[in-house]
Amino acid sequence: MLVRYGSAAWNADSKKAETAYVFVRDKSSGKIAKILLEETAPNSSIFEGQFSIHWDTPQAQLEFYVPPPKLAKTGNFKQFQKLLESNHLKPHDVFTHLENKKLIYEIYDNESQVAQARKIYAQKEALTAPKAATPSSATALPSAGAATTTSSETAREAARLRMEQIEEQRRQQLQSTMARLAQADREARKAKAAQLAADARRRSRLQRPVQREHPHQRTGAAAREQAPVHRIAVNREHRGP
């Protein structure tokens, strides 16, 4: 069996073919395995990997999970289980078909892409299937040349769908980056405005003149404490008649 997925995020180095992991889980038994995918060519952003699973589970229901880029590079099993248990990962949409008598699992990002892939391969099957016999003719079989042409057209359409998937990922990554930058810019502007306001308040306090109170303006206890004391000198030596 073969797994195929298109990922712009995994293609970090355009000069070399890179690797990444996806995880597969049997829905009925809960068993999990990881599959190593290799980039088909440097900078292709298309990853494939062959695998075989020997689980003693009749009619296994396989679910494929595409982890975040960092986890996809390491394939850390415990981190994947933690994300899975916390419901931070959902299974991806998958379309299965036969290619050169091999079962292929095509992983896509949404059901719309799966529907397009299903349509592409349905058209191939319709064109290559034997035509029904008529009373005047034997069963018509597609010629080898017609089958080759149909396979080539199907491959081109499938490749086009993969490139659309990858371009959509890049567009979403760009939008996410721009949103983060915009948020960071807003926060930086807000912090700068708060700092300028604080600086202005501090300068205002430093430049405010200190007003001293005039003694005559004081009242109450303060005035009595500060009022001048007039003393009357008494001449004790003077005696009256």
Topology:
Elements: E1 2-6, E2 19-26, E3 32-39, E4 46-50, E5 62-65, H1 69-74, H2 77-85, E6 93-99, E7 102-108, H3 111-128, H4 144-207, H5 220-226
Parallel strand pairs: 1-7
Antiparallel strand pairs: 1-4, 2-3, 2-5, 3-4, 6-7
Helix pairs in contact: 3-4
What does this structure look like?
There is one protein chain. This protein has 241 residues and is of the alpha+beta class. It is 43% helix and 18% strand. It has a seven-stranded mixed beta sheet. β2 and β3 form a beta hairpin. The N and C termini lie far apart (142 Å). The mean pLDDT is 82.
Helix amount: 40-55%
How much of the sequence lies in strands comes to: 15-25%
Distance between the termini: 142 Å
Largest sheet: 7 strands, mixed
Number of helices: 5
Per DSSP E runs of 2 or more residues, the count of β-strands stands at: 7
SSE pattern, N- to C-terminal: EEEEEHHEEHHH
Shape category: elongated
Low-confidence stretches: none
Rg estimate, integer Å: 41 Å
By oligomeric state, this entry counts as single chain
- Mean pLDDT, to the nearest integer, reads 82
**Strands across the major sheet, in which order?**
5-2-3-4-1-7-6
**Structural class per helix/strand content?**
alpha+beta
Task: Quickly describe the structure.
With 241 residues, the protein is an alpha+beta fold.
Task: Considering the chains and any ligands shown, give keywords for the structure.
alpha+beta; 7-stranded mixed β-sheet
